[in-house]
Amino acid sequence: MEDIKALSKQILAQTKEQGESKLAEYRKIADDKLEETRQKLQQNEEKQKELIVQSVNNDYERQAQTMKNNLRNNILAKKQALLNTIFDKAIEEIQNWDDNQFAEFISGVLKQIDQNKSWSIVPGEHSIDKIKSKPVQEVLAQYSVVTVSDEIVKNKAGFILEQGGIDYNFCFDILINELKKEFSPQLASLAF
């Protein structure tokens, strides 16, 4: 009987030892899996933080660039408005020339024409009085090849010079707009 008790104790001890060994092995596997999962969660958390920081930085850079673009566009619009004002004032000033200034201008134009051809001046609606003025009539008297048309150019100051179906436009707004195209970049760089 003693042998049976001893064998029982031995089997029990062996079973207990095997159970504890397997339990320790399972605990180690569970701890390893737990540590692996904790590390993965930590890595995911770090990646999420990096993605959030990157997203915030991208949003910030986008908003900063949008603000820079808006500021640049506003400045350009103000510069353009200022240049337009300058050219509008130039048109207004030329339209307000006195008779002598208008006569000088028309004389300068007529000095360049071919005296062997017939020319016609079509006055702008806002310049009819100046064409009829004494200083301009004195200039026109020097050019027998030039006649003043009964037609007018509506809503314009200045005149159109016609010869053989070709029109040379000396309406002030057109002249200033041509100068505007040519000189706006230079004026913008000088002024700003």
Short description:
Helix content is 72%, strand content 10%.
Structure description:
It is a single chain. The chain has a 4-stranded mixed sheet with strand order 2-1-3-4. With 192 residues, it is an alpha+beta fold. β3 (158-163) and β4 (166-171) form a beta hairpin. It has 5 helices and 4 strands. It is rod-shaped. The protein has helices at 2-95, 99-110, 128-132, 134-141, 172-191; strands at 119-123, 146-148, 158-163, 166-171. It is 72% helix and 10% strand. The protein starts with a helix and ends with a helix. The chain has 2 domains: 1-96; 98-191, 2-Layer Sandwich (hypothetical protein PF0899 fold), CATH 3.30.2320.
**CA radius of gyration:** 47 Å
String of helices and strands: HHEHHEEEH
Helix fraction bin: over 70%
- Enumerate how many helices there are, as a single number: 5
**Strand neighbour order, sheet with most strands:** 2-1-3-4
Beta-strand content estimate: 5-15%
Q: Mean of the pLDDT scores?
A: 88
Euclidean distance between termini CA atoms: 115 Å
Low-confidence stretches: none
Number of domains: 2
Count of extended strands: 4
Q: Overall 3D geometry?
A: rod-shaped
Largest sheet: 4 strands, mixed
Structural category is alpha+beta
Enzyme class: hydrolase
Organism: Amphibacillus xylanus (strain ATCC 51415 / DSM 6626 / JCM 7361 / LMG 17667 / NBRC 15112 / Ep01)
EC number: 3.6.3.15
Protein name: Putative V-type ATP synthase E subunit
Present the secondary structure layout:
Layout: H1 2-95, H2 99-110, E1 119-123, H3 128-132, H4 134-141, E2 146-148, E3 158-163, E4 166-171, H5 172-191
Parallel strand pairs: 1-2
Antiparallel strand pairs: 1-3, 3-4
Helix pairs in contact: 1-5, 2-4
